[in-house]
Specification:
With about 575 residues, the chain is of the alpha/beta class. It has helices spanning about 30-40, 55-65, 90-100, 115-120, 125-140, 150-160, 160-175, 190-200, 255-265, 285-295, 305-310, 310-320, 345-350, 380-385, 395-410, 420-430, 480-495, 545-575; strands spanning about 10-15, 45-50, 75-80, 105-110, 145-150, 175-180, 245-250, 270-275, 340, 370, 440-450, 455-470, 470-480, 505-515, 525-530, 535-545. α15 crosses α16 (about 420-430). The chain binds acetyl coenzyme *A (ACO) and pyruvic acid. Keywords: Amino-acid biosynthesis, Branched-chain amino acid biosynthesis, Isoleucine biosynthesis, Transferase.
């Protein structure tokens, strides 16, 4: 028995166009080029690059791509139909889209009569003319056209006959893809399914051309012939008399991904969306969820398995480029997507990951994580101990002791899920492996608010006394705040004994008031992130005194840094 080839779905990415309509997101040309290259590597066949007539950046972006073309993806330029009562040939926007020099163009036109009369301010017939004239003109100029039917679902609900006329006009004018857009994002999955089914029937579209029924059409954008109205063929030789269908959904009802999936189930074979779901208002359908759902759950083919296994990295790299923090809880690609916190979950996952994971995380390039907290059981402790290289068994007394201490400290306000270095130190303490590098004798911090030439500024001074190897050390240091002064004084006292401390620095400092109702006597939790230039680690301190909490976190940060350095030293010595 031969394995059946999965039906293909063409992914159409619009991060660079619809994605950049998200409030707070702005891309430079270099950003756009970097994102386009990542999508190309990922194996996305269609990348919508922007609207060339709308702004100079998008014009230049297409020029830059001509100089440094993508390896496999087809870059698509986007534009509206021509303006009412003009010809397509004289519309400057359409001249701009031609000048972009892409093989494929996407044109959006109105499907909803309300938008025609109130948005465009023209007649229903003129809108049909605009669609026809625009597409025919672009075809006459050798372009292949994807037609985005804007507000398709609202239009179809309001006036199905007119909406169908717009689609038929686009189809007859030579559009190769008709894309149903849920522009306002208000349609629910059951309505999407019903409407797509109706339209396929009413337009008498051939389901064979929709990428189902075992066909594997050769519509690879880069391998098909150039030129005017190229003949479209399926692998089996049947010519494409009817266009293929696509879906473009927005997330205003939080159902964009479900809506796109419903359309595919009904026969649509192009899915438009954006990386990380960026887009106007609440965003577009998130390709980072859609692609794995299509390929791993529904059995369609979107990209090679190895490309899918880079999805998490591409998602995070794009969030870095657009300068938006990645969503830790995003399905498939989020940091927490395969994080297990509850003790029951961890105990089962350690036996068989299927018990609490819907897919193996590595299929999308993500990884399983075990989180430590007061929701933990012995299984969490064992899993963490293993990841830190400690030999520990469920029956060991230390194991229960660590779990008990963890719960006790979390009850006092500590939070170890974000401070794994402190948890490692706690485990070492219980296992009798914690090395004490110094002993605190006391510290004092003095903080002033001073008047500068224009603005006030703060100045702080810390004095610290520690004992190292039996020797008492007293040091003073200044800082721009009490914590930085204390940190500086401590390092100054220790650096003579532990020169590696000179390479450590604080990279983040977070404070959380734990019991707001208690006012100034509330407890404070401090999380400190430290680095030695190669690794980063986080430690935690809790106290009613913010300086005391900061001191705990800073000291553990230094202790842990020393531990990491000595582990490196040991590894080097052993290799030698
Ligand atoms: C659903 C979508 O996401 S569509 C994409 C939306 N994206 C954007 O709008 C971003 C880029 N847009 C822009 O830079 C500008 O809006 C431009 C350059 C396109 C147009 O700017 P302006 O000429 O100043 O027009 P403005 O933005 O005020 O209004 C939009 C015009 O497009 C017209 N229009 C809207 N849809 C269409 C359409 N499908 N076909 C033709 N014209 C359309 C509107 O009727 C309006 O016309 P008017 O100027 O006669 O009132
Ligand atoms: C075309 C498009 O972006 C929309 O209708 O949402």
């Amino acid at each position: 028995m031969t394995a059946q080839t999965p039906n293909p779905i063409w992914i159409y990415d619009t991060t660079l166009r619809d994605g950049s309509q998200r409030e707070g997101l702005s891309l430079s040309i270099e950003d756009k080029l970097r994102i386009a290259r990542q999508l190309d590597q990922l194996g996305i066949p269609f990348i919508e690059g922007g609207w060339p007539g709308a702004n100079p950046k998008d014009v230049q972006f297409f020029w830059r791509l001509k100089e440094e073309p993508l390896t496999q993806a087809e870059i698509v330029a986007f534009c509206s139909t021509r303006r009412p009562h003009k010809t397509a040939a004289e519309d400057p926007m359409l001249q701009a889209i031609l000048a972009a020099g892409t093989h494929w163009v996407t044109i959006f036109g109105k499907s909803w009569d309300l938008h025609v009369t109130e948005g465009l301010g023209t007649t229903l017939d003129e809108n049909l003319e605009m669609i026809r004239d625009t597409i025919e003109y672009l075809r006459s100029q050798g372009r292949r056209v994807i037609y985005d039917a804007e507000h398709w679902f609202d239009g179809y609900k309001n006036n199905p006959d007119y909406a169908l006329k717009t689609l038929k006009t686009a189809m007859d004018a030579g559009a190769e893809w008709l894309v149903f857009c849920d522009t306002n994002g208000g349609t629910l999955p059951h309505e999407i399914g019903q409407i797509v089914r109706d339209v396929i029937e009413r337009l008498e579209l051939n389901p064979e051309n929709q990428g189902r029924a075992g066909f594997e059409p050769t519509l690879s954008p880069t391998t098909e012939p150039d030129g005017l109205n190229p003949p479209l063929q399926t692998r089996h030789g049947a010519s494409l008399h009817s266009p293929r269908l696509g879906i473009h959904t927005h997330n205003d009802s939080d159902t964009a991904v479900a809506n796109a999936l419903m359309s595919v189930v009904e026969g649509v074979c192009m899915v438009q969306g954006t990386m990380n779901g960026y887009g106007e208002r609440c965003g577009n359908a998130n390709l980072c969820s859609l692609i794995p759902n299509l390929q791993l759950k529904l059995g369609y083919h979107c990209m090679q398995e190895e490309q899918l296994a880079t999805l998490t990295q591409v998602s995070r790299s794009i969030s870095e480029i657009v300068n938006l923090a990645p969503d830790d809880h995003a399905a498939f690609v989020g940091r927490s997507a395969f994080a297990h916190k509850g003790g029951i979950h961890v105990s089962a996952v350690e036996r068989n990951p299927l018990t609490y994971e819907h897919i193996p995380p590595q299929q999308v390039g993500n990884q399983r994580r075990i989180v430590i907290s007061d929701q933990s059981g012995l299984s969490n402790v064992l899993a963490k101990a293993k990841s830190f290289g400690h030999e520990l068994h469920k029956q060991d007394a230390a194991c229960r002791q660590i779990l008990g201490r963890l719960k006790e400290l979390e009850n006092e306000g500590y939070q170890f899920e974000a401070a794994e270095a402190s948890f490692d130190l706690l485990m070492r303490d219980a296992l009798g492996q914690k090395q004490q590098h110094f002993e605190l004798k006391g510290f004092q911090v003095h903080s002033d608010m001073l008047q500068g030439i224009d603005t006030p500024y703060s100045n702080a001074m810390a004095t610290i006394k520690v004992t190292v190897n039996g020797e008492d050390i007293l040091e003073v240091a200044e800082g721009n705040g009490p914590v930085s002064a204390l940190d500086a004084a401590l390092r100054k006292a220790l650096v003579r004994f532990y020169p590696e401390i000179g390479t450590f620095y604080l990279t983040d400092y977070k404070v959380r008031i734990l019991d707001g109702a208690a006012g100034t006597s509330a407890k404070t939790r401090v999380l400190v992130e430290s680095s030695n230039g190669k690794q980063r680690w986080t430690t935690v301190g809790v106290s009613a005194n913010i300086l005391e909490a900061s001191y705990q976190a800073v000291v553990e940060g230094i202790e842990y840094g020393l531990l990491l350095q000595s582990a490196v030293k040991t590894a080097v010595e052993q290799n030698v």
